[in-house]
Amino acid sequence: MSLQQLLNGVSLGSVYSIIAVGFALVFNILKFSNFSHGGVLTVTAYTGFLIATRFSLGLPLTLFFTSLAGGVLAVLIERVAFRRLRRNKSPVIFFFVSSITMGILLENLITIAFSSNFYSYPKFFQRTILEWKGFHMAVTDFWMLVISLVVLGLLMGILYRTKLGVAIRALSMDPTTTLLMGANVDRIVVATFFVVGILGGIAGVFLGINYTLYPQLGQLIVKGFIASVIGGLGNLSGAVVGALLLGILEVILTGIEGIGSGLAPVVIFFITLIFLILRPQGIAGKIIQEKV
Amino acid sequence: MNPSVLTVRNISKRFGGVQAVQNFSLVLPRGGIVSMIGPNGAGKTTVFNLISGVYPLDQGEVYLEDERISGLPQHLITRKGIARTFQNIRLFQGLTVLENVLTALDPFTPYTLVEALFRLSRSRGEEKKAKEKARELLRLVGLDSYQDEQPSNLPYGLQRKLEIARALAIRPKVLLLDEPAAGLNPKEVYDFIDLIYTLHEDHSLSILLIEHRMQVVMEMSDWVYVLNFGKLLAEGKPQDVQKDPEVIKAYIGEEEAC
Amino acid sequence: MGISVSVLVFTCISIIGVSGVFLITGLAGMFSLGQASFMAVGAYTSGVLVVRFGVPFPVAAVTGTLAGVLAGLLVGLPTVRLRRDYIALVTFGFGEAIIAILNNLSHITGGAMGLVGIPPMTTLPLVLLSAVFSLFFVWNFKFSKYGRQCIAIRTDELAARSMGIHGDGLKLLVFILSAGLSAYAGVLYGFYTTYVDPGLFNWTRSAEWIIMVFFGGLGSLTGAVVSAILLGTLPEILRFASEWRILLYCAIVLVIINFRPKGLLGERELGIIKKKTTPDTGRAV
After folding, report:
1. How many residue pairs from chains B and C have C-beta atoms closer than 8 A?
2. Confidence (pTM)
3. Which chains touch C (3+ CB pairs under 8 A)?
């Protein structure tokens, strides 16, 4: 594996890490795998496209508005798909089904609105490739990496330095006590979803840039899931590590003759399977033994 | 024949930073009724979980008669003859009262998948037999008129009885009862003690009991083990343990204060 | 008013697939986003055997189904003891892997272009008979010791194990059976449409079947059948385009989950056995 591949893998992984963290946040507070996040990715990817082309905005502004859109969308999703389930204390299966359904619904809305045509984002930068001592990096990749790092840093700041962050972490550890302590759980959940939506918006734009726009884009949420699993379900830093590893792995696999991007899913499937068998708690996670 | 039906030797279990159980040993004599008491969080339910295989042991062994059962998977330990009830009633809510007992009989009901899929005569015959056995068990605890009800529609005391009927279906040698009288009013507690005695005699059950109600413990137990912070604090006959100053300090003292 | 033969055939095929999903999700509580890939295994194995190797249809059909069973065993073995979320992930991954393999083995499978020239061997009587038999088997399964133990595992796995129920063994059994049913549905499908391509067997199809089971009520086979029929024929009658049909399904599920989590029939079945249902909190699942 060359350093070049490593660079590419890391930049790909940084996008995955934003997806994975958004995924992990919801898992932390509501204890289920939120597949509707895929829908958020798709919708925001297209939204970003519309914003960028209609208003000819550069990357920073596109990201700003798209992430706002993502935040709003996520809050709406929480209201429609999960609020009542929380009220009814429904079993986890229902959250899961609701999230998948929401994801499919959004995917199909996009399909109807845009049909299955492929679109691509406009070029944001003049120069397309950066060069440094023989290493190449696409400018977009470079910015994705930088912005991802900044965003993750901000997120950590929020989680560990603000009241909201404390509330989110408390909720993820013990929802009942948090409620008893007088915290407005509803608001914390909404706030978390808003943050998750923002993350989704950013990731959506990046995915749209990286891949051409198509309605099934949201299925890349699985990468987030896999990354979270590798890192330890619910563990945020684990999700980031898992995502980076996944990105590097994908770049390597795609580069190998005979596997390419066609059979890469197969290899990843087997690796995930092996991982789940040998270390189901992920790299950083702990197996939570059910208290009887 | 081994006079002890259940032998627990030096078991320990740690959860992360917490030593839940440390070096605990216990002997349940055949046909005996033994209690475990101790303040909340003392590790009593953890001991049950270790015996029945819910958690793996960090160290120590558990023997059922002469056979070592520690390390076996949960369902096998049960099939060897250890049945239990739970502190928070764990009945199967998607099934009726009768079906709840049936499921405990199911692992032992002898017909194959093919016979089931085609509803061949052996499967129909065995189902009938199993349903009869299940009704018999419900009759024992007085629940036979409720057989088609949903468990959640039963009053609390009857749900507890259903748990017992279900546990008996396994034809256990040892019955682990986790706070079986919790949530019962005084009359129900009397009924309950009666029921346990009857079952104990008629079916030669050996019973290991976790209880907070001193009345139940004192009346029923041949021997009492007191736990505190996961360790054995004292053991002995009920009246002796009741007078032990350490025990009073740790546990009964709290009760007196209530 | 045209409920054409093809709608009937597809509905019956759905019923077979949905009965498999009922086993795995309704009875055993596992979420498999890969049922459609077992369908693909069945369709492609039997299709390739006939188209490329001239194997007679009955043999190919049986082989296709057995291939699905084998795939179910291979995937199920490591998967069933994982947590629910992980089972969904692994089955999803398997689905993707199968699609990738099918796309890549183009000299055998026709790749993304699909497998053409499958002879039309599926007739309406065959499909109807198959659907009836599938329902017969699954119904008997549900009311046998196997079904009961599955429901016990679904409701409270820990308690089930302490009653002596072999959780992993049963889950694997159910996994294999439903894989077989899906594969057989795939065989019938391929030999009706005479053409299959990998894109037909993606996770949204798996999700559709899950949605049908939910709509009918997780514990109810009758409900699953009813919703397969309703959701299968309604769009045809009302002439919806396929994207709107999926939107409709999704909306239905969201409404059900929010307002009537027990689905149409809850735990009830029509006919033989009447059960009382628990209050509408969705908690009984």
Report:
1. 110
2. 0.85
3. A, B
